[in-house]
Amino acid sequence: MDSLKYTSLAELVALAQARKERISDVVIIDQAAQAEDIPQALYDKMLHNYQVMMESIDKGTDPNLKSTSGLTGGDAAKLHQAYQRKRTLTGSFMSGAIWRALAVSELNASMGRIVAAPTAGSCGILPAAVATMREEHNISEFNCVMSLFTASAVGMVIANNASLAGASGGCQAECGSASAMAAAAIVEMAGGSPEMVDHAVAIVLKCTLGLVCDPVAGLVEIPCIKRNASGVTTAFMAAEMALAGITSHIPADEVIVAMKRVGDLMPVALRETADGGLATTPTGEKLRRQVFGDGPIVGCACKGPAHQ
Fold first, then answer.
1. Residue 248 to residue 4: CA distance in whole angstroms
2. Using a CB cutoff of 8 Å and minimum separation of 24, what contacts does 40-48 make?
3. Is there a contact between 217 and 35 (Cβ–Cβ < 8 Å)?
4. CA 52 to chain centre
5. Which residue, 14, 25, 24, is CA-closest to 185?
6. pLDDT tens digit string along 20-62?
7. Measured between alpha carbons, how far is 21 from 19 in angstroms, rounded to an integer?
8. What does the alpha-carbon distance between residue 279 and residue 179 come to, in Å, rounded to a whole number?
């Protein structure tokens, strides 16, 4: 087949349906051809990414973990403790997804090793979704790894038609995109059809449209870490709806274009500059001075694609 351009999720869905395969099966073969390699080699690379993701969850649950700034750390451990004691409102499934997302995000803030998925600031959403599906539904390692190819394809479509960077599209481009990738992976792991993947992606992005990027003190900590927790819950919500047969009236490709337009209209102060939103609240300013003193922030400490 001709190499895929990853400019349309509908095209990926149609191809997978025509071949009676999962999106991940189509993607791994295409990517192997483009890389002039064998599918097994690409699988092994993705397996490594998967393993790093799972390790980051474990390391991020350390109760003594603290970010370099000292502003964050230890929240994943608190929720994990409640999870272990079965003292959560949402049961092991949702609370498990939340603490895992917090864990990876807190590890990132402490300069630990993570997989940018698609960015460092949104790194907790996809690993938390995959790990929770593995734990709660006994998904095989193979299917967990393959789901990451579907997630990656969704990320590429968004990157080619909108943005993955908070500096250009706000947090809808980072946590929104990560949530869409996670929803796609969840649907595939649950045995959903390629068409259901499309609807899940559309539903997620509609629910995160317009989300601003306003990091306190210019750091990927407040509110970024908690937005990762929000992102994984939104991903499961969208996947649940899509798997039940609920459809999005607006196709995913059109939602992605709308996301691009919204990002372009967003004020610069709400695009990773720390010049608006939560970053300029009285407490946000106080925390900035606590970390950097009274002087201005020299450059942004955010870690979207442009900063990596």
1. 25
2. 43/145, 43/146, 46/145, 46/148, 46/149, 47/141, 47/145
3. no
4. 15
5. 24
6. 999 999 999 999 999 999 999 999 999 999 999 999 999 999 9
7. 5
8. 23
